[in-house]
Amino acid sequence: MPFLFHRHQRIRMIDSYKYEDNHPDRPDVFAREPFIVRFSVPNKELPELMLIPLHTAPTHAEAEIDALYDVFLNVKSRWGMEDMIFLGDFNADCGYVAKKRWKEIRLRQKPDFHWLIGDKADTTVRENTRCAYDRIVVHGQRCLDAVVPGSAQAFDFSKEFGLSEEEALEVSDHYPVEVELYSACQGLQPIHPAGLVLLAATVLSTSGHGF
Question: For labelling alongside 193, which of 13, 18, 27, 43 has CA 20 to 30 A away?
Fold first, then answer.
């Protein structure tokens, strides 16, 4: 279960639910069922936003990432909205998802899903690995328009805080992924949604620590 941190003065949680992993064609796909959260955000063009964090089981990463499309359809049917951000440790690289398999994964092949963290990113702390395990995927034109261009990235906290690799690994073996959204009420001034960063960090941490 992920922890959600947000600035309640600016972002308000409206509703939430856990996805029931009982699709008739693909039952019991997820090792950890996604927890969908609906927020009210300070953007007149994007007043509400859904966050869907996921930490896949490495050996079932392909199936779980693909099944996020079923989650999308479920959320759309339940709330009638399409502006969503999927994020977290998808284990989406380095042997867990073969390059030739991407064409079979609906969340990747459907053109309306925009992968903000690309395949060449490195979201791992260890110097001897370079893997784009952790991702941010956006759906919905209003949601995409709210993204500050170039803001999606892995946050290198070891560099930011001057930590050795050993010290950084005490926090997590992955870097958190982050993205900034425009606030329409501030005249397209970007706001840094700390809730997103912290949410991603708690999902992706595999060392037992939050960030």
Answer: 18
